[in-house]
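Memo to structure team: turn this sequence into structure tokens by end of day. - J.P.
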Amino acid sequence: MVDGVVTLLEAGKLVGKVILAGSANLYDGSIHEQSNFAPVDEIGGRTEIWRIEGTIPDDFPEGVYIRNGSNPLFGALHKVNSIFGQSEDIWVEGEGMLHALYFTKSGEGSTWSISYNNRYVQSDTFNTERDRQRPCFLSAIKGDPLAIIAASILNMLRFGKVFRNMSNTGVFEHAERVFSVAENDIPYEIDLDSLGTLCSWVVDGQWNMPFTAHPKVAPGSGELVIYGFNIVKPFLTIGVVSEDGKKLERKVDLKLERCTYCHEIGVTKMYNIIMDMPLTVDLTRILRGAPLIDFETESYARIGVMPRHGDADSVIWFDVEPFCTLHLINCFEEDHEVVIRGFRVPGSIITGITLEHTANEEPANQGPSEKSFPCLYEWRLNLKSRAVTGKYLTGTDIALEFPVINNKYAGLHHKYAYAQVIDVQGSLEGGCGTVRPKFGGFAKLHLQDNNKAHVIDAQRFENGPIAKITLPQRVPYGFHGAFIPRTTYNKT
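Reply from structure team:
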């Protein structure tokens, strides 16, 4: 989407895919209030959309496309100065705001009605700051070590938690209920019709700890596989929620010896897939003046294969070369192997990647490589021989992120995937060798056709878009979203 226009695409066989804003344009080198990172106001309710160019297909499913993102309530990137030094916000710390586009058929089912709404996720800390009409939490992630420690202690003493509960990262549906989530908090159930926040979800009181932004539905059983990582022990806990969402069937401390920044988990028919990588969160680093989150280049990496209802002792660990993977495409079983596909980089976008170049070589002249950007990678873990093989599926000349597949194939063998392509030239303009990925076109990955990747410019498809929907206001850059078909939720 550009300037508030949602595009339904037909050429390239992506009919029915809805795109809201540059949702993965997260690492622009110029983060400021005038850019599309700037927050927007709530519009106050659902607004009918009348400006539609083209035609929405009759077989397009009724439902809601809903997306989550950071929308700071009192402005972005605050700094706090004290006798201990300075601490400051980072760009991901804004409160969560949901943006929803509703597709319904009226009359005899021949006329489309489309409306838009946006609303803040009303977490407990959001309500606290909104009621006081000012930011209350001190910045505690970036800054001088003593200032971060002081801010953490003061936040804990005043509010019982170190960070505000942002709920700005993901949206998921389970058991006909829709939730907003960020991995530093528990999920919040959302009324999909009004975008109002109904309640926090602790799975019948059994899960009161951090909750992943990427839970996975296990193929076959319909169970929801969840996890949460923590900066103190237990560092990583796996859970399995019943298909009806009423019971926590399994809760397992994996007994890790470090807090790995585990942003994704994989599932197959029988297993949970754990990515134990050296992107870690360590409080003791702050005392040394080092970052809270850092990539430990000399440390180990491994991938765990855990039976769905297993325990820590049942996990089979496979040692692999150190890597960082924020997002997986999919995992599945094939003969004696577990196949894992995701975007791998030997470093971390979160903490910043620096390209090596000489004084006479400008960063903008370099292309992406396995040392600079996330590229599509496949690990094959042989459960019989315990051997590991791995390879780049698209080589290292194309950089990708934010993948999606047809959810019907999650945990199963799949043919296709879609991702966003990093705009290399724009990324390297950050200067000083610092890589700040910007996202350009789309890639359609043919994973059973010699591992082809088709890069698509959504504004230059051969036949053009079949429909353009102009929204009533700008939608800021965000994180993750989901399309919820009307048949899967019970609200009108």
